[in-house]
DUF3781 domain-containing protein (Solobacterium moorei F0204), 71 residues
Amino acid sequence: MNTTPEGLIRIKESLNSDIEDVVEYCKNKIRDKNCKISREGKNWICITDDIKIIVNACGYTIIAAKKLQKQ
């Protein structure tokens, strides 16, 4: 699992975070037992702890991660 240099910047900005290793952070969130994973077209959608992580299903590239609005 990886991301692009642009993806790193986009994810850090979206999460408003200074996370050093974004890929490892996302992998840990995806591994969480409460993570809900579904397939939408060519992407896996992973939702846990009010964070949505989008992963390309073919290359396992982390495309985006963002905080969800609490309802």
Observations:
- The chain has a mean pLDDT of 93.
- The first helix runs from residue 5 to 15.
- The longest strand covers residues 43-48.
